[in-house]
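Risk register update: the risk of archive-format incompatibility is retired. Evidence:
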Amino acid sequence: MDDSRTTSEGAKEVPAVAPAPTAPTDREARTDLGRRRFLRHAGSSGVAVAGSVAAARAVAASAPAPAAPVNAQAAAPPPSTPAPAPPTSAPEPPLALNATEYAFIVAAVDTLIPADALGPSGSDCGVAFFIDRQLAGAFGAGARLYRQGPFLKGKPEHGYQLALTPREFFQTGIALVNAWTRDTHHKPFDALAPSDRVAVLQLLERGGVDLGPVGSAEFFEALLTLTMEGMFSDPIYGGNRDKAGWKLLGYPGLPATYQIDIVRYHGRRYPHAPQSIVDFS
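Archived output:
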């Protein structure tokens, strides 16, 4: 697919530097396709982060927190308690995907970004919503792809070579993965146990599922890329709800006037709330 792709509004994600990784927690070490491996792909995908979510969350957990007010009444939740999901309004229906396809995307992003004590799940952060909106817009229609043919089988370095639009690519891939899990597990992907979903995604990543022309590894890479973009793009595009991804990394967001803070908070947690395009609208 087009590596220089923009969001549906035309905004490019700008790479930023994530905190240096520290030792992962027991929970993260047990989750092969959790936050550690999720962000390992960020540098090669052009997403606005690098490193791993596992490392970022470990840094956030171990960094000294700002001093609490003297009259603070409520203590922080215990580490074993999942963090509350960002507040949401009534859910909007999908625009590009049907109910079965959207359920697949929700299950996939929640497998890649499961809820834990330091943050909500991918779908609670609006990642599935973001993916659907991207597929419903110009990107999903292949507006920036050359689609006049001929469509020949190319080498990996040639990039995307199919006649399918990105929307058709995802819809076809979802249908084929669900057909494969029904044959092997007697259930669609979203109905599998979490551990089975992890195993399926691992197999897809290794190219171990026959998805015909779509390609197993290619489908996984496209899914992972959109998941990362939904987690770390500006919230104005529907993902990164409540700026959860930015808060996880300590990323200040839109302002370009925080240079002095890089020195002031070097090696320490950034205590100020990140700001998005909406905050300046």
